[in-house]
Amino acid sequence: MSETIIGNSSATQDLLALMAAIAPTEASVLITGESGAGKELVAQGIHDKSNRSTQPFIAVNCGAIPAELLESELFGHKKGSFTGAISDHIGRVQSADTGTLFLDEIGDMPMAMQVKLLRVLQEKVVVPVGSNKPIKVDIRVVAATHRNLEEEIKEGRFRADLYYRINVVPLCVAPLQERREEVPALVEHFAKSFAAQKNSVVTLDSKFLRVMQAYDWPGNVRELSNMMHRLSVLHPGQRLSIRDVSPTMLPVGMTELASDIVGDSAVSEQSSLQDIMFQDDTVKTQTPDVDRAGPVATSAATEVSEEDREFEAIIMRAQGFDDFRQQGQSLKGILSDVEQDIIQRALTETDGNVSRCAKLLRMQRTTLIERIKKYDLKVVAA
Question: What tens digit of pLDDT does each residue of 137-161 get?
């Protein structure tokens, strides 16, 4: 059986209802969606609810197998049909007989193979490489792709006849950023999945969860799963705030969200200092933590050491600003000025192209747009 699909959003509930309706049929299904969104999980779910559930579910990643080997992998080959064919080989299509064949990333399949696959789907027979004897197969095909196949057809990279053959029932898996309300449930699910023991389940506090929901998750559910696996390994059984996790262990852009959305100054300062590459272990910026150290820590944090002042002055001189101590400006304020200056320079460097600028700065595009609005920066194309 497949892993349960987690999600209470309207998009996921609609998807589950459609899966339940089409699973008992023999209709071919085309699943679209971004990489990591869970397309294979949907395909497995359709198979598990179908009349073929007790038969094989064979998955083939069409983009991961070299073009010269794909035909042999799909259709099989006879002994001696080519160099290295030391024995007969049953292909994935024949292995899926009476069951379901899942063709993942079918949009990456070479045109020559598309023609041969279309013949298999139309005639329900497969001919191994090096043979001229057709073998009957009874398969249901579920395909998936992150590409826009209609655009691929226009560009001459995908056959229209194959597209209409596999696209009897289209399903779309929404990206995680369009169903953010599911993040807490997914966090809990993966935390339990990756816990070594029942008492080693990692949990996140409410502020951490808010940051997780605000993050764009470009890698979708796969990225979230990987992150929870990482936290489960590094912090088993702990209840974490975002300041408990090193910025190097968080996705790019999440530490910035912690500052913007939650107002977590500890994460903000740590991330900002790393961004401008001042990573000397002898330099420490202390941040008050009322929850952990109480009033004593708060009082001590208000005192700025001479070392901190010198460090701040170095930042100012490196960026060509006047000495901030003469202006009465704080470290947080000066880091904001530095960030503003760097973003403006990057915008100029990329001729005002926000997407290129975000990649140059290794920022989320949405975060960059927020910064541009915050600082009222000029975005002028050359």
Answer: 999 999 999 999 999 999 999 999 9
Residues 45 and 191 in one domain: no
Please give the pLDDT value at position 184.
96
- Number of separate domains in the chain: 3
Task: Give the integer Cα–Cα distance in Å for 98 and 45.
Answer: 17
- Residues 278 and 325 both lie in one domain: no
Amino acid of residue 296:
V
| Full residue range of the structural domain in which residue 357 is found | 319-382
Q: Does residue 365 contact residue 354 with C-beta atoms inside 8 Å?
A: yes
Are 46 and 143 spatial neighbours (Cβ–Cβ below 8 Å)?
Answer: no
pLDDT digits (tens, 9 = 90+) for 36-61: 999 999 999 999 999 999 999 999 99
Give, in order, the Cα–Cα distances in Å from 52 to each of 57, 100, 122, 234, 266: 9, 7, 20, 41, 54
Residue 66: alpha-carbon gap to chain centroid: 24
What's the CATH number where 15 sits?
A: 3.40.50.300
Domain boundary among 303, 327, 347: 303
- Could you list the beta-strand ranges (E) of the chain: 29-32, 57-61, 100-104, 125-126, 135-136, 140-145, 169-172, 203-204, 239-240
Phi, psi of 223 (to 5 degrees): -65, -40
Instruction: Please report the DSSP string for 26-73 in residue order.
Output: ---EEEE--TTS-HHHHHHHHHHTSTTTTS-EEEEETTTS-HHHHHHH
Q: What is the CA radius of gyration of the chain?
A: 27
Report if residue 310 sits inside a domain: no
231 shares a domain with 202: yes
Same-domain status, 158 and 180: no
b/e map 5-18, b = 16+ CB within 10 Å: bbbebebbeebeeb
- State the CATH number of the domain containing residue 274: 1.10.8.60
The dihedral through the CA atoms of 227, 229, 235, 237 has a sign that is positive
